[in-house]
Amino acid sequence: MGIGWNYAGFVLLVVFLLDAGDFCDGGVTSSFVRTKNISADMPLDSDVFQVPPGYNAPQQVHITQGDYEGNAVLVSWTTPDEPGSSTVLYWAENSKTKSHAKGIVLTYKYFNYTSGYIHHCTIKNLTFDTKYYYEVGIGNSTRQFWFVTPPRAGPDVPYTFGLIGDLGQTYHSNRTLTHYELSPIKGQTVLYVGDLSYADDYPFHDNVRWDTWGRFTERSAAYQPWIWTAGNHEIDFAPDLGESKPFKPYTNRYHVPFLASASTSPLWYSIKRASAYIIVMSSYSAYDKYTPQYKWLANELLKVNRTETPWLIVLIHCPIYNSYIHHYMEGETMRVMYEAWFVEYKIDVVFAGHVHAYERSERISNIAYDIVNGNCTPIPNESAPVYITIGDGGNQEGLATGMTEPQPSYSAYREASFGHGILDIKNRTHAYFGWNRNQDAYAVEADSVWLQNRYWTSSEKSSIASS
Ligand SMILES: *[C@@H]1O[C@H](CO)[C@@H](O)[C@H](O)[C@H]1NC(C)=O
Ligand SMILES: *[C@@H]1O[C@H](CO)[C@@H](O)[C@H](O)[C@H]1NC(C)=O
Ligand SMILES: *[C@@H]1O[C@H](CO)[C@@H](O)[C@H](O)[C@H]1NC(C)=O
Ligand SMILES: *[C@@H]1O[C@H](CO)[C@@H](O)[C@H](O)[C@H]1NC(C)=O
Ligand SMILES: *[C@@H]1O[C@H](CO)[C@@H](O)[C@H](O)[C@H]1NC(C)=O
Ligand SMILES: *[C@@H]1O[C@H](CO)[C@@H](O)[C@H](O)[C@H]1NC(C)=O
Ligand SMILES: *[C@@H]1O[C@H](CO)[C@@H](O)[C@H](O)[C@H]1NC(C)=O
Ligand SMILES: *[C@@H]1O[C@H](CO)[C@@H](O)[C@H](O)[C@H]1NC(C)=O
């Protein structure tokens, strides 16, 4: 009897251990449950959407990097009533003289919406690591802002990026942005992983919600560059409304320096910034072999000098690794196309949005898999990037809460909450990544990890020659 009981007990124990093993293999699925889970957009008369006072006053002011090297800034803004002036007046903090740069102005129509006068002006040849003031508008309605140029690219230049995605314009969005602004580790540039305004969720893609989003984000984006990635909510393809040119509002409103990296489209491009090399890709443009994006990326990866910019970062909207039910496997074709390059070129981190939640992967690769060998389990590989999904800005579509179970072994941490990330690069070997859940205090990090640079610390042999 005793033996029988023991045997049954042993079997139960083994079953229990195997079961627990499955869960231990995967990382942490957070048990945090959010309160006040309402994702309503802030009403049109909210403080964050206020129109600046004065006739034809510039609004929706935002800046992004204006060239490849980092010493140009692209300033964009809208004047509502008339074109006014596309000139930016700017001066270094301690300079007596002011300079002018002349930009362009454009308008676009979308269904029955006509945009304001959208200005884009690139200020070039700035001094690295310098504070500049700038002024837009004319007459009684000028507005002044400032920015700080990054240090010249170099291997041990510390620099701090914020990570925000799928922001939208709800109360949660406002909270995420506020937490980013008040973070004790100060972000110097935002890496934005796509899905901006969610205007396309409104009837007739009401582009007024693009304007409100521009006014909402101005308080950050006018003072530090936001590096833009296009998401599915930027496509705005609506033939039923007579709108069959994809990305029309986005590409009119958010200009990027794609020509500087020899790209043929604003939807994919790259920049150098301090010690980082940032490659922006488009999930919603052709990327198969022989396409413009493919050819561009093949050449781009060869250009990167890991001594000058040790940190190689990819921004993309649709995640390649995602263990949530929402958008599960949507990134698979992109993974099949590009994962081998990501591992070969030792990309440090791939940031994505799309899934309205947070997830961080282990360093894993699935490049051994093909349809014949059936080896479809991702395996640890220290040359592989960490994949971070940060589509948790807090838009009106709400959280992605459904997860595949058990948590796959490649998933290190996942949580259905809203928040933002900080990537704090210390030197060529070390960077710190922290994720703030926007229901915690500003300084609390619900998840964090030290990242060791793949090029400088991984012992895996690389097929790329060192520079
Ligand atoms: C655009 O058309 C829709 C539907 O007819 C209407 O509700 C809306 O007020 C129109 N907007 C403008 C700016 O005319
Ligand atoms: C860039 O600025 C420097 C001084 O800061 C000046 O000497 C140089 O001529 C400028 N170059 C261009 C192309 O404007
Ligand atoms: C602009 O300022 C001038 C001088 O202060 C004033 O006379 C004029 O009425 C103002 N114009 C507007 C449109 O406010
Ligand atoms: C948005 O956040 C800012 C900063 O915390 C706050 O001043 C403002 O009142 C908030 N607005 C709304 C509509 O929540
Ligand atoms: C890479 O960058 C370093 C540091 O800027 C420089 O010394 C080196 O010449 C560059 N290598 C190549 C191949 O351009
Ligand atoms: C990691 O990937 C690289 C590049 O494909 C490969 O050479 C290496 O053998 C892999 N390492 C492991 C542990 O599988
Ligand atoms: C949050 O609300 C969404 C709908 O807005 C719902 O699908 C989801 O299950 C809710 N999540 C939690 C954790 O309550
Ligand atoms: C790089 O930064 C890390 C983390 O701050 C530190 O431990 C390490 O000593 C630094 N390396 C060098 C060479 O300074």
UniProtKB/TrEMBL annotation:
The record's annotation in PROSITE patterns points to: FN3
Record keywords, A-Z: Glycoprotein, Hydrolase, Iron, Metal-binding, Signal, Zinc
Name the CDD domains on file: FN3, MPP_PAPs
**Keyword ATP-binding on this protein?**
no
**One term under GO cellular component:** plant-type cell wall
Give residue ranges for domain Fibronectin type-III.
57-152
> What is this enzyme's catalytic activity, as reactions?
a phosphate monoester + H2O = an alcohol + phosphate
Could you tell me the EC number(s) of this protein? Answer: 3.1.3.2
Q: Which cofactor does it need?
A: Zn(2+); Fe cation
- Name any Gene Ontology BP term: cellular response to phosphate starvation
Report the InterPro entries cross-referenced here: Calcineurin-like_PHP (IPR004843), FN3_dom (IPR003961), Metallo-depent_PP-like (IPR029052), MPP_PAP (IPR041792), PAPs-like (IPR039331), PAPs_C (IPR025733), PAPs_N (IPR015914), Purple_acid_Pase-like_N (IPR008963)
Which PANTHER family would you find in this protein's record?
Answer: ACID PHOSPHATASE RELATED, FE(3+)-ZN(2+) PURPLE ACID PHOSPHATASE 12
Family (UniProt): Belongs to the metallophosphoesterase superfamily. Purple acid phosphatase family.
Recorded protein name is Purple acid phosphatase
Per the UniProt record, the source organism is: Vitis vinifera (Grape)
